Give the backbone structure.
Amino acid sequence: MPKTFETFKSVALAEGFDEVLERVWAPDTVLEEHTHPFAVKAKVVQGEMWLTVGGETQHLKPGDLFELEHGAPHSERYGPEGATYWVARLN
């Protein structure tokens, strides 16, 4: 599992992802159900979040990985300290 952003980015680009960035979310942010026009592979690096896909909720903490398929309906909730994750997108 990549331990630095640069390593995460290198691995993701080698896997065929075309965009890699760091997302920082404010404390207690809630995003109602939505979709994205890209597939996602991400690693939580700080804070915590809850990701709900298909009625199943995952509690994600630093070191945890998650993936979303292109167009997958999902919702997100971030903890009292917010959260940061590295995300690779396949547009």
